[in-house]
Amino acid sequence: MKPKFWFVIAGMAAVLALIIALVTIFSTGTGPRGYVANHYTRAAQLDKPGDDDNKAYTSSRKPSEVANAVARAWTPISQYTDDSGVYLRYRDDAVIAQPRNNRGTVIHVMDIDQAYGHYHHVVGGVWGWSSPHGQTFRGGGPGAGK
């Protein structure tokens, strides 16, 4: 067999591997949003109103178990837990796992700014913002940012 034949076979194998990789990446989703969508049951009736990017899901597991599973798969920037639930902050998204009427957990995946607006009363001083609009702190000492 000629060497050209092996180059053609290798090229076809590389293209096939690329197609499989792309299908896997785009069908399973990436980040915490994709992880939650692939591992929990969608519950559109529990979406928070006023946020088109908000998606609600449910699980029969406890909020701490759900949050730990998500955090193991995708390490959050910040995590806060209180009696109302577990709040995971990511760069663009937030995952909030809260108890659901003694029947497991409701999981909200939402844009970080919308999550901060909804849950400012809980995560206000924890997620690092100093304003109620989710803006980042610009301080740095005397004269900084002026």
TrEMBL record:
Keywords: Membrane, Transmembrane, Transmembrane helix
Membrane spanning stretches: 6-26
Origin superkingdom: Bacteria
InterPro entries registered for this protein in UniProt: DUF4247
Protein name: DUF4247 domain-containing protein
Lineage: Bacteria, Bacillati, Actinomycetota, Actinomycetes, Actinopolysporales
